[in-house]
Amino acid sequence: MDTVRKNRKFSGAGAAMLLLFTVITAVTLLPFICIFLASFRPGNEIMSYGLGLNLDFSRMNLDNYHMLFFGENQNYFLYFFNSLKYTFLQTVLTLFFSSFVAYGFAMYDFRGKTLLFGLVLLMMTTAVEILMLPLFLEMQKIGLYGSMWAVILPQLTAPLPVFFFRQYLIGLPKDYLDAARVDGCTEYGIFFRIILPLMQPSFAAMGIFVGMNSWNSFVLPVLLLSQENRTLSVFLETLLSPYKNYYDILIVGAVFSVIPIVILFALFQRHFIAGMTAGGIKG
Amino acid sequence: MRRLKSLLYSQRLAPYVFIAPFVIVFLVFFLYPIASTIIMSFQRVVPGQTSFIGIDNYRKMWNNSFLTALKNSAVYMVCTCVILIPVPMVLAVMLNSKKMPAKGFFRSMLFLPALVCVVVAGITFRLIFGERPGALMNSLLAAFGAEPVKWLGGPVRWTTMFALVILCCWRWMGVNTMYYLSALQSIPEDLYESAELDGAGAWQRFRHISVPLVRPTTIYVLTISIYGGLAMFVESRMLFANTEVGNQALTIVGYLYRVGIRKMNYGLGSAIGIFLLVLTLAVNLIQLILTGFFRKE
């Protein structure tokens, strides 16, 4: 008797949560569905009727996609490849330099360590938007304005990856290091030959974190990149002009920019969630 | 030369070599910009004849546009904190519960908006909140028999802020839930079991076990929500297609951008930047003191 009642209660709470999460999921997906459907309809129609759940399949076609790949796509793929290039460079360089710095913080005791690590935390809690104006002027002064390096260099040792790698490295046993030193390995040799291979799992999570942030980054690129170096998000925003109507290419371009990430997410879900929530992990 | 090399390779100097990239980036791309903003905020910056003008910029800053921007940013920050902390916490508790079916599926679904960049999200929400009757929000209203509304920059003031807050909730609900979920998963199960044996109900277990034990996550989420909320800019820029009709969605950084970068008034722009920096640090410092971040456990 008792177990039966317990089971009924169990399914009741479960069903209520199932219902709640189904509603939440539907609301979460709604914007995706709307914009995805809109990518099959002419842009001026979206303009005159508004973006909604219009399921009139007879009015849908692949014209926008045809235009994106073969027609007047406003150089969409130039910016797409700019985004790829920027994402690749930023991710590789940030992972390398951040792990290098994190190793210094995690494995050594030295004067000023607490202060310097405090500065990492300070950077973590300062929005880049605040530095917009001085960075803009500084990049012009040192001649980097317009180039991708203007966006890459300030984020070379990003505070969150440094913090994350440091946590990870602190968890590694230090016995190796002394053994390696006895064997004649230099301090840098230890990092490159022993530690870097050991850090692979943390690289997966941080690679996704930095890669996602770079692919989606907007504030620094819109501020600092010249027209030919623009990334996809900056380009898409320029299409949202009050003076001209580029809605066809804007909507299909926006949808197409998300598709690669959604595919990657489907393949590497666990790493995505680990990477994107890395900041919340405390030790 | 050889001595230099052996010094460079010594265990005493090596840590400094390791952290050198951070120190360089910090000095060149953080400290220098902040220092130069502080200086510029006391100047009238005109090429060739820059002059110090004391606190004039800080005095000129307090105009109507700035006060509107300050109010908008503050309201936005408070709304997002009030929603995006308790709700994700409860959702995470449910996702962590043994009774919850299809956990993995819902976790992925909630997370999806985090994959989309702010520009694409902004474009989508701008159109969803369009003023046409066929736009999603208005068609929802129509389903309840209400008239279409001009959500963005319309006659009713709160609809603009509503759209901004909804956009923010849509983007961050899943991520914040994952933060809490990973925190909850590290709480040992037997804590809940023994509480249940002692007769603690679901609410009591939530109130007295989950909430206190995920406090580090709450502090982290609160910290990033405060600075993210006060520095919000792109979302409002996207919803208004970069036009500056009125000040309904103007934020502090939006005003900084308008004054400092569009109108090239570097002095005034810098003063706004410094104000925002101090405001963010102050609010976060108060928050960290109140939440007991500095208390030794």
Provide a descriptive summary of the structure in words.
The complex is a heterodimer of chains A (283) and B (297). With 283 residues, chain A is mainly α. Chain A folds into 2 domains: 2-70, no CATH class; 76-280, MetI-like fold. Chain A has helices at residues 2-38, 43-49, 63-70, 76-107, 113-124, 132-141, 149-152, 159-170, 175-182, 187-198, 200-216, 219-224, 232-239, 247-267, 269-276. The longest helix of chain A has 37 residues, at 2-38. Chain A is globular and about 75 Å long. The two termini of chain A are 45 Å apart. The relative contact order of chain A is 0.13. Residues 1-8 of chain A have low confidence and may be disordered. Chain B is mainly alpha-helical and 297 residues long. Chain B has one domain: MetI-like (MetI-like fold). Chain B is 69% helix and 1% strand. Chain B is built from 15 helices and 2 strands. Chain B has helices spanning 2-8, 14-40, 56-60, 64-84, 86-96, 103-111, 118-128, 136-143, 158-185, 189-197, 202-213, 215-230, 234-239, 252-262, 266-290; strands at residues 43-44, 51-52. Chain B has a two-stranded antiparallel ribbon with strand order 1-2. In chain B, a hairpin with a 6-residue loop joins β1 and β2. In chain B, α2 crosses α15 (266-290) and α6 packs across α9 (158-185). At the A-B interface, α1, α2, α4, α5 and α6 of A face α2, α5, α6, α7 and α8 of B.
Question: Key terms for this structure?
Answer:
heterodimer; A: 283 residues; mainly alpha; MetI-like fold; 15 helices; globular; disordered N terminus; B: 297 residues; two-stranded antiparallel sheet; 2 strands; 69% helix; 1% strand
Percentage of residues in helical conformation of chain B? 55-70%
What distance lies between the first and last C-alpha atoms of chain B, to the nearest angstrom?
A: 50 Å
Largest interface summary:
A-B, 94 and 102 residues
What CATH calls the topology of the largest domain in chain A is: MetI-like fold
Q: Helical region count of chain B?
A: 15
Order of helices and strands of chain A: HHHHHHHHHHHHHHH
Number of extended strands of chain A: 0
